[in-house]
Amino acid sequence: MTLGRIIETPDCVAEGARWLAAQEPRFATALEQTGPLPLRRRPDGFAELLSAIVSQQVSVASANAIWGRMQDARLTGPRKILWASDDDLRAAGLSRQKIRYARALAEARIDYAALCSTPTDQVIARLTEVPGIGVWTAEIYAMFSLGRADVFAPGDLALQEAARILFDLPERPRERALRQMSEDWAPWRSVAARLLWAYYRVAKDREGIR
To answer: What is the pLDDT of residue 206?
Structure first.
């Protein structure tokens, strides 16, 4: 299985957006409202996944504060996590469950460099072996840290709601239905996700969505 396109620059995103707009008139309409889509590339590696664990089930402000304390304490690498005491990790703001997840990630010994050349389905399978890393987190990592052009995250509530509004669906599509729907957007499903997230913000402002 090939990796497909890797999104490296804003031009890659723009190419995907043009393709989607040509294939689906509703995407063309959404793109007119959103304007150019963001690149949103992130670093890859242990710290990015650890940060995702930190962010689970807390507000953005809380996650940023905890991550800042972990950075100050230099608790962002696998060895540091394994060497730190539970008290050290609690002092940074991690709950008991997140301490367990952080240690599991550190113990997993993931070859992050190898993931860059690993097919997306295998990346997701490898990452979700680790307690605390779900399918959504793995898909987001593949999308933004590895730059995969053809991965989607149908479990994302904002994507579901954006698809409901844009495609005039009677109700918010569930994960399985949206995954099937997104197959029509290959090989640019990551750009379709960017477009739906951008459209969600436009629709939220227009319609007062919570």
So the answer is: 67
Q: Is the Cβ–Cβ distance between 136 and 156 less than 8 Å? A: yes
73 shares a domain with 19: no
Q: What is the pLDDT of residue 204?
A: 84
In a domain, 4, yes or no: no
Statement to judge: residues 68 and 140 lie in one domain: yes
* C-alpha torsion sign, points 78, 79, 85, 91: negative
Q: The domain spanning residue 92 has which CATH number?
A: 1.10.340.30
Q: Is residue 189 part of a domain?
A: yes
Which residues of the chain, if any, have pLDDT below 50? 209-210
Look up the pTM and report it: 0.92
Query: Within a 13 Å sphere around the CA of 207, how many CA atoms are in the beta-carbon half?
Result: 12
| 55/108 same-domain check | yes
Cβ partners under 8 Å of residue 50, min gap 6: 70, 76, 81, 102, 105
pLDDT at 3: 81
Beta strands (DSSP E) in the chain are: none
Q: What token pair was written down for 3? A: 């990796």
Q: Dump pLDDT digits (tens) for 44-60.
A: 999 999 999 999 988 98
Domain count within the chain = 2
Do 140 and 158 lie in a common domain? no
205 class by beta-carbon count within 10 Å (0-12 exposed, 13-18 middle, 19+ buried) = exposed
Tell me which residue range forms the domain holding 187: 10-41+150-207
209 in helix, strand or coil? coil
